[in-house]
Amino acid sequence: MAGQGVTPRSEDYSKWYNEVILKAELADYSPVKGCMVIRPYGYALWENIRDQLDRRFKATGHVNAYFPLFIPMSFLEKEKEHVEGFSPELAVVTHGGGKKLEEPLVVRPTSETIINAMYAKWVRSYRDLPILINQWANVVRWEMRTRLFLRTTEFLWQEGHTAHASREEAEEEARRILDLYADFAVNEAAIPVISGMKSENEKFAGAVWSSTIEAMMGDKKALQAGTSHYLGQNFAKAFGTRFLNKNNELEYVYQTSWGVSTRMVGAVIMVHGDDKGLVLPPRLAPIQVVVVPIWRKDADKQRVLPVAQKAYQELRDAGVRVKLDDRPELSPGFKFNDWEMRGVPVRMEIGPRDVDSGAVMLARRDIPGRDGKQSVSMQGLVASVRRLLVDVQHSLLDRATRFRDSNIHEAKNYDEFKEIIEAGGFVRAPWAGTPEDELRVKEETKASIRCFPFDADGKGGTCFYTGKSADRIAIFGKAY
Amino acid sequence: MAGQGVTPRSEDYSKWYNEVILKAELADYSPVKGCMVIRPYGYALWENIRDQLDRRFKATGHVNAYFPLFIPMSFLEKEKEHVEGFSPELAVVTHGGGKKLEEPLVVRPTSETIINAMYAKWVRSYRDLPILINQWANVVRWEMRTRLFLRTTEFLWQEGHTAHASREEAEEEARRILDLYADFAVNEAAIPVISGMKSENEKFAGAVWSSTIEAMMGDKKALQAGTSHYLGQNFAKAFGTRFLNKNNELEYVYQTSWGVSTRMVGAVIMVHGDDKGLVLPPRLAPIQVVVVPIWRKDADKQRVLPVAQKAYQELRDAGVRVKLDDRPELSPGFKFNDWEMRGVPVRMEIGPRDVDSGAVMLARRDIPGRDGKQSVSMQGLVASVRRLLVDVQHSLLDRATRFRDSNIHEAKNYDEFKEIIEAGGFVRAPWAGTPEDELRVKEETKASIRCFPFDADGKGGTCFYTGKSADRIAIFGKAY
Prior knowledge:
The structure is a homodimer. Chain A is of the alpha+beta class. Chain A has helices spanning about 15-25, 40-60, 75, 80-85, 110-120, 165-185, 235-240, 265-270, 300-315, 330-340, 350-355, 380-405, 415-425, 435-445; strands at about 25-30, 35-40, 65, 70, 90-95, 100-105, 130-140, 155-165, 195, 210-215, 220-230, 240-245, 250, 255-260, 290-295, 320-325, 345-350, 360-365, 375, 410, 425-430, 445-455, 460, 470, 475-480. The first copy, chain A, is globular.
């Protein structure tokens, strides 16, 4: 590790983001253009995200399956909007086993088509519905400008694909999943999100409608953190996915698809990180507590180390994700900085004086300096640590929510809009523009409609752009 | 589901294998040549395999990471034997984002090369070693003849890639992993395996030596169920993966790689299945217990169903993977056959008379008919079920071990060898032949050296083929 510090976030957000990922060893650039390597610390974070999502999927009746990586080009072409949306981004396999293929195979950019080809085979009657399948997989979208975790040619994600006997049931499913994503974001990632509908311009290629959870990053830009689509019968018609309904009539199934990707790791970094590096929410942190024993003289080491080991063992046995940093060649100060940069939520310091008093020092990552430190008794250590982890989790969510809310502004006219966007932040305002208006605003200000938030359903006002009466509220922001 | 029965295993093993996979909905053929779809029931089995392996990897200090799907063709060419071994099986991406690529990208058939490119960047000194990384991923090998789970163009696996500061440590790691695989196979999959060394002909392309766990399937053929390779410095030299050792000298790292794939699902099917279908070992079964309530009259249903629900809830709360089959439109007999075919280890029947006596009937899948049935009290139900699941697990392992051992024979000469192989089974005999002899034997009998078993280290005798004095024992068999 060459040098510990990172460029402060406040100095250069973009540089900070890349540096913190590389120095905290979350990921690395690979020799393959646009593809990254997810290193063990970053992958452990992704595993925790995956497990917490997977638990929620299974609790709501979903099951996992696995479909082929390769999709015949002709399949993509069956749904017109879908192929238009994805064809500029495809990676194409033309040769296999030393021979040119009769039909090129696309490396999946998403799996609606190949999955519908199977559903068309599996579904016969309403008794076979609903199908509630999720897949954890890698996908490839050929990107021109890539960014670690946020936009890479290959990325990891989950993609849910469900089929239902009625439109109502399918739309309900798509909304239920968006709520599930929001619940995950808020309660696991400590990221407040705005749930809402995507505009026509921004919806998924092939969907009837797309819903999204949108989050505000530390630089006041927006990140789409998860999407849930109602596909209607579009893919069902393209693939002939039909069922005999209760009236014994053949009907196309109603479908949804939804996904969260390794982008979520980028969101966690950007929402919580600070000048010193990562700040990870305890519920997702690969290491929740790092124990750092402190000694100068060897006699002190003999007294301190066993206590540190005992504390480590107690926490570990209690199911806390804990690491003991007893590397002899490094100073405590170096270790403090190192684990701070890596975003470990709680540091436990144990020195000779702590041992004397039967206590340890707990330092929380989210509050720097003395204010974030407290001495707690070795008695009841596990309970103290657990309480502190819960407290850190809540305070990260509070902080992120306050930050976001103080950076969402109303705009009465386009000039106000431009000022707010220029200064950084979201605009929340009535909108009556056309899709073309939306594109013009984007061209002029780089801000796009992030969503029409559900919490404003039924509200309206005067459109800041057209001056017309608007029957809905939009959230605008510059987006990643 | 069209028709419940499967072709009996005893009648046509190969047909039975395919049918049972399709009818039990473990997997399905896909429209992409050579690629299969892993359906939810099959994927749940794979998840259990994955979790039990992953637990063992982590307990031995390994961490997960993720490397790119695509590998530049030039990387593969850096290790001569490696590229020779894999080049006939490659899928090649030639176009991305609508343009022809400057250098074709290979879809990973295995990741030694791309991983070494990263290790070369990460490793500086002996302090950076060992690296103990595992990856769960999909890989692609263009196969001519495919078989569900056993040989598919795309498959799922884990691939461990470790780097060490000494040859001893690396060789120890490769052996430790093989032991871990054997422990998994025996204690989770109830599959007895023979651990040993691969012959030169059969070793991994690029390895110094390859070790393997070999299992005997129900048709007495062999299946390689997992391999662990010592790579020496072959890849390190190709990629310049060097470290400063304790004497401050630059030295190439010593490496291992090892993998288990979705093939393991095929092994579980083929080792334990019977004429009626799947028989799943309780520790890996997605459903360990199926509860089937039995009633004819509606009055009986009112009494039976609540008891079945109570039993289901109790087992579920105790962490047993249980399913309640209360589908009203199907008869108990149909359900019995269905769950038998799907290999659920224990069936619980609850009828009016059971309710009267405060008991339930447990039927174990591995022992057909009355012999496998026992009535147990609703009191202490969880304990009874747990005991039975352990018992089924052990008895499956016992049965498979007895079957295997009774089908391994010694051969004194080539005629005896041919008779044994012809009749089905393994030959265990001294071997002093050359690699060319081995190929000739394979051509003439279809049997190859599965391994030189570790349990025969130091033993020898007269070679059945060459008549020469042999200093090692080989296991031969026809293999999948």
